[in-house]
Amino acid sequence: MVISAAAAIEINKQKINELNVFPVPDGDTGTNMSMTLNNAVSDLKKAEDPTLTKAADLTASALLRGARGNSGVILSLLFRGMAKNLKGQTEMTGTRFAQAMQQGVDSAYKAVMKPAEGTILTVSRMAAAGAEKAAQENDYAEFVLEAAISEGKIALENTVNQNPVLQKAGVVDAGGVGWITILSAMLSSLRGEDVIAPEEGAPAAVKDQADFTEFATEDITFGYCTEFIVSRDNDQDPEALREFLNGMGDSLVLVDDDEIIKVHVHTNNPGVVIEKALTYGGLITVKIENMRLQHTEKVLSAAEKENQVAKPEKRYGMVTVCAGKGISDVFHDLGADQIIHGGQTMNPSTQDILLAVNKTPAEIVFVFPNNKNIIMAAEQAAPLTEKEVVVIPAKTIPQGISAMLAFDPEGALEDNVSAMEEAMKAVSTMQITYAARNSDFDGYAIHEGDYLALYGSALFGTSRDINHLLKGLAEKIASEEKELITIFYGEDIDEKAAQKAQTIFEKANPDAEISLIKGDQPVYYYLISAE
Description:
six-stranded mixed β-sheet; 531 residues; alpha/beta; single chain
């Protein structure tokens, strides 16, 4: 059922993405839900005849660590609550399924600081309520799930009336659509009609070293790597030995001269191979290794290395999320121990954040998400490590930089948190990006490809002329009498255009100190901070 759900989200992810009202390019709901769910698919496919409890636990664990974006985190919480309810269960009755859905909803609501109506939370809550009502009528899982979907669809249609932003755009909630898609695929699978994901020939990621987890131990056909050198004490033809060994295994290499025969072969019968070799002469060297055992040890070693928790060498450490070499360099200079490459359109998973935290050699680790869609994933990583984790809820790169500038390595934890949060409030963030889709938002008729200017989290303006937006932002800052302005220009902006942007700000703010930095960030042409 979960594998079918992942397939259904993969098939429909772009449709779900297009429901996102705010037209800025983002990691988008459909993409994040798909990446989160697919994190469980490989584990589930490897499981041999898992019990109900095992399948639920595998799903919850994989989703928690693979959660990306707020929608992915909420999705992982829904399944985590379900897994807790199913602990020790061997079968799924309608009543049990309804209870599991309700516990999933409870888990999600508890984790969200300010639950908003008209979202996936609303849809999941109403679907669970429909399930509980149906279970009283018929204690059959299929009947209950069907009722949950029906009630969830009614709730989904009403999200357009519950959320003012959705109402303006005339669309339903993207996360809610995702949840109904998941439940519908689970019902389809329960009825014996699995949803199959499309095959994509995506190129494998380039890796610095071999990933021994790419194949399972049982995929090793011949288990013993057998190498030896035997002296040629008679005139038997080495080609006869080659022919014999070809029938005994694979990866055969045989080299001979007038005095010796050197052999490398993978086989399941090294004793028979050695016995045959002795008919040619005496053994000079021999080495036999159990490749299945080696593979297991390498997998375990790689896992231990990946999950190793660095011993504290100091009281405080810092993990930050950002994209772009120039911006990474700034965070590194400010003292970041670990930098996670990510941000808009590239939301790191809870596992990515957890690994970075564990690699940080400090007792207390501050995490700076620098994107509102990464904060929940960072918060979910905190209870998964033995280190004390404090998430500083920076929603933008400038907020993260300002917070780190306020950090005092000798200060008390509470004082540092307070100082960093105050620093974030003092900085204004401006961003210029592009419209990912057509939209009618907050009074603006937006067309795909338009430049979009954001001031804080609000849409400031849209134009086909980027300099027009820069001038408007510069004048806005001037009206607020800011003293320090930093302009980070992105990977798609050349130095000449960036210097023109700086000139625009200097003319509007003659008394301000203005810095221009090549940030190399994707997605955003300009990131601008003002204090």
